[in-house]
Every structure is written in structure tokens, then in C-alpha cells.
UniProtKB/TrEMBL annotation:
Keyword Mitochondrion: no
Name of the protein in question: DUF1109 domain-containing protein
InterPro entries registered for this protein in UniProt: NrsF (IPR009495)
Organism (species): Janthinobacterium kumbetense
Superkingdom to which the source organism belongs: Bacteria
Chain ranges passing through the membrane: 28-50, 62-80, 92-112, 132-150, 162-180, 192-213
Keywords: Membrane, Transmembrane, Transmembrane helix
Length: 215
């Protein structure tokens, strides 16, 4: 077959995704797992697992918090994936990220509205608002390093945006780890202070993206 014929056949045929190198998915899973384990180890050293975690896990509010953070993890991971695939559709990503946020904020606003006036401040500020965002940001650092390393092996083109997505994914996973320690359950607290903690690694990722992800 002539070279020109081969090129024409490939151009006119169905889209064929490039096959990843053998073992690439296992290495990616290992890299991400190492980042998450690093975050868990950091949480265990700095904070420890909540002594009454078993009791908290019996409350619906605990699972609402975990479900919210897990949804953000999935949305952020999907955004990171697509931003590393040139030509992948990204139009739906803002809605994918915004949907769990809007639902949590609506729930938080409803709870605040129905709560007695004297309890509203406690529901929003909780007892750990000073430390919560900083702790989530700190726990996200091993995961951020792992996600950026994975992204370097792919082909991101919008480097700052890809770095921001990596940071948000790291922050969401770190928030999930932080749930093992955090005593706060109020939707208004989680919807604000947890998200603020996730935005710190998002900003770090956006700053590092053009330098770390250039190829």
C-alpha cells in the first residue's frame, strides 16, 4: 500500500483513539493511589480519625456531606480528564461542577432559613472555620503532585485551566479524606468552608499549570 493511500484511509476512516502504552492505566492508578495514601497519612499524623466517627456515620447529614464531596471528586476528575484530551468536549464541564455546588448551597440556605435566629451563626461558622480550609488545602498537596504528574504524561493544551482542574480534583479528594476527622455536618458550613479549602489548591494548580504541564 502506498503512503498516500494509507494516509487517506486513516483520514477517512472512523476515529481511532491512540492506545495507551502497556501498563499505563495501572501506573496511573498507582500514582493517584500514592497521592491519596500520602494525604491519608498526613491526616493521620496531623489530626487523626475522629473518635466518634462511627456515631457520626449514623447521621444522614454525614452522608450528605460525604456524597457532596464525592460528587465534586467525580466532576473534578472528569474535568481533569477531558482537559488532557485535545478536542474532547468541555462545554458541559461548568454545569457538571456547578450542579452539586448549587444543590448544597440551596440545602444550606434552606436549613439556615428554617433554623432559629440564634442558631444560624453556629450553623454557618461551626467550631472549625478557622482551620478547615487550611487543613483541606494542606491535605491536598500530595494528591495535587500526583494529579499533575499524571497530567504531564497526557496532552493538555489549556495549561492554566488544566492545572486549576487538577487542583480542584486534589482539593475535593483531600476534603473526602478530611471527612474522617471533621466534626462539622451542617450543609451551610460544608458548602462554604469546604469549598473554600478546595479553591486553595485550585489556585495553586492554575499557577503551576503553565510551568509544570508544558510539553
Amino acid at each position: 500500500m502506498k503512503t498516500d493511500d494509507l494516509i487517506a484511509m486513516l483520514a477517512s476512516g472512523p476515529d481511532v483513539a491512540a492506545a495507551p502504552p502497556p501498563g499505563a492505566r495501572w501506573r496511573a492508578a498507582g500514582t493517584l493511589s500514592a497521592g491519596v495514601l500520602g494525604s491519608v497519612a498526613l491526616m493521620a499524623m496531623l489530626l487523626g480519625v475522629r473518635p466518634n466517627l462511627e456515631q457520626l456515620a449514623r447521621l444522614p447529614d454525614f452522608w450528605i456531606k460525604v456524597g457532596f464531596v464525592a460528587c465534586l471528586c467525580l466532576a473534578a476528575w472528569q474535568a481533569s480528564r477531558r482537559l488532557c484530551m485535545p478536542g474532547a468536549p468541555t462545554r458541559a464541564l461548568p454545569l457538571l461542577l456547578a450542579l452539586p455546588l448549587l444543590l448544597m448551597w440551596a440545602l444550606g440556605a434552606l436549613i439556615l432559613q428554617e433554623a432559629p435566629a440564634g442558631q444560624r451563626a453556629e450553623l454557618f461558622w461551626g467550631a472549625t472555620w478557622r482551620s478547615c480550609p487550611l487543613l483541606i488545602a494542606t491535605l491536598s498537596l500530595p494528591i495535587l503532585a500526583a494529579v499533575l504528574r499524571l497530567m504531564r504524561q497526557l496532552a493538555p493544551t489549556r495549561l492554566r485551566l488544566a492545572g486549576a482542574a487538577a487542583g480542584f480534583a486534589a482539593g475535593a479528594l483531600a476534603a473526602l479524606v478530611y471527612c474522617l476527622h471533621c466534626p462539622e455536618l451542617a450543609a451551610s458550613f460544608v458548602g462554604f468552608w469546604y469549598v473554600l479549602g478546595m479553591l486553595v489548591p485550585t489556585a495553586i494548580g492554575a499557577a503551576l499549570g503553565p510551568r509544570v504541564l508544558a510539553w
